[in-house]
Amino acid sequence: MNQVNKLEWDSNFFKLEVGDLNLINSVLPNCDNFDLIYLKTKKGEEIKINNFEKTYTETKIIFRKFLNGLKNSYNAVFDISEIDYSLEELYQLAYESGKHSRFKLDTRIDSNKFFELYELWIINSLNKKFADDIFVYQEDSTIIGFVTYKVTNNYATIGLIAVSPNHQGKGIGKQLIDKVENELFKKKINELRIPTQEENIQACFFYEKLGYKKLEVININHYWKK
User: Fold this and answer.
1) pLDDT 10s digits, 58-107
2) Model pTM score
3) Which in 1, 48, 52, 214 has the greatest CB count within 10 A?
């Protein structure tokens, strides 16, 4: 039976009733108690929900790679605990990491909530709620790239990754990914997953170039109550 599950964190953050709907069959449940619903569908599948308007669809891709050895280490990549930093530096990179996010591109979501969301992501990564660690690329005492990751069961997932726009295309992203892969390999975690958006063509090409393969492709649709 299809059911809308209330998402407590999202509901509290947006101050709305936010739910997640995974369709098992074609019978839609009553959604009247919700303001915003995230509906996952297959690519090309169109669903109508009475009294709701679909405002945005993000095609999410999860890339996966099995790790089989250590990579090069780099002098400019540090654990966040090893350096001095400002939250503003990390916030700016977090905004960059989310520029293709549905929370930025859905016009029904206030832009201030996008910034607040990614600032909270940084705070909760620093306090280990959302991430096991943060690695940064530093040049002339300035952080120009960073990556977060978290281990769940027997694999790890990248949370946020970004390089300052003025420094992209210089191999910094690869150095950050190599650092994560090395740490995981030492911990005997042999699988790393990286979520991104199909619309982020540059990122998809980058991960494939590093040997990552598509594990899952899914549409995440935003339905707002009219």
Assistant:
1) 999 999 999 999 988 899 999 999 999 999 999 999 999 999 999 999 99
2) 0.93
3) 52
The tokens for 186 are: 């030492």
Measure the N-to-C terminal CA separation of the chain; round to a whole number of Å.
25
What six digits make up the tokens of 40? 């996952």
Q: Would you list the DSSP string of the chain?
A: ---EEE-HHHHHHHTS-EEEEE-SSS-PPP-TT-SEEEEEE-TT-----TTEEEEEEEEEEEEEEE--S-----TTEEEGGGS---HHHHHHHHHHHTTT-HHHH-TTS-HHHHHHHHHHHHHHHHTTSS-SEEEEEEETTEEEEEEEEEEETTEEEEEEEEE-GGGTTSSHHHHHHHHHHHHHHHTT--EEEEEEETT-HHHHHHHHHTT-EEEEEEEEEEEEE-
